[in-house]
Amino acid sequence: MARDIVIWPHKVLTTSTQPVTDFGPALETLLQEMSEAMAEAKGIGIAANQVGVPLRVAIVGREDGTQFEIVNPQLLSKEGSVKLEEGCLSVPDVWEKCPRVERVKVRYQDKTAQWHELEAEGRLAHVLQHEIDHLDGHVFVDHLSSLKRTLILDRMKKLQKSLARRKEEPSEGKGPKRA
């Protein structure tokens, strides 16, 4: 079952995640739940802290629709600069031009603890940076001007309050009847 996506500025999104040390069934379950949450939200990537789990693991989607996991990733090199339109599952309905680098080299483990190195450019480099930022306790709005960040923060706080109210309300057929 998919986990709920945490909305920024929740503390789990602004704190660095912990390295994965257990590569067993719990990690497999977490990855499945993250994949389902990402699919439900129609995302191209998701980090574990976006579903409330402070572990250094993310799922990265490729443009062809396939995806792969990155566990304990490290950015080894960055080249070039680019500004691309960026959004985030934890900052819903917000899209802004965000400064990133054009090419990255990343070292990471897969779900079986095997190490890999990947050089990426374009959209894949963009998604890798976005997800590794999450794992380091940053969201894309951290790269924006303070004015834009403040306006987005106000919207997200209102959204968090609205979602909290909905959770408190009894759903259809449950709880006391209302006149």
From TrEMBL:
GO MF terms on file?
metal ion binding; peptide deformylase activity
EC number(s) on file:
3.5.1.88
**Transmembrane found in the keyword field:** no
- For whether the record's keyword set contains Iron, the answer is yes
Source superkingdom: Bacteria
A Pfam family (short name) is Pep_deformylase
EC class: hydrolase
Q: Which positions does UniProt annotate for Fe cation binding?
A: C88, H130, H134
Q: Which SUPFAM superfamilies match?
A: Peptide deformylase
Q: Which cofactor does it need?
A: Fe(2+)
Catalytic residue positions: E131
The protein's job, in short, is: Removes the formyl group from the N-terminal Met of newly synthesized proteins. Requires at least a dipeptide for an efficient rate of reaction. N-terminal L-methionine is a prerequisite for activity but the enzyme has broad specificity at other positions.
Against NCBIfam families, the record matches this protein to: pept_deformyl, PRK00150.1-3
Q: Which family does it belong to?
A: Belongs to the polypeptide deformylase family.
Name of protein: Peptide deformylase
Task: Give the organism the record lists.
Answer: Corallococcus exercitus
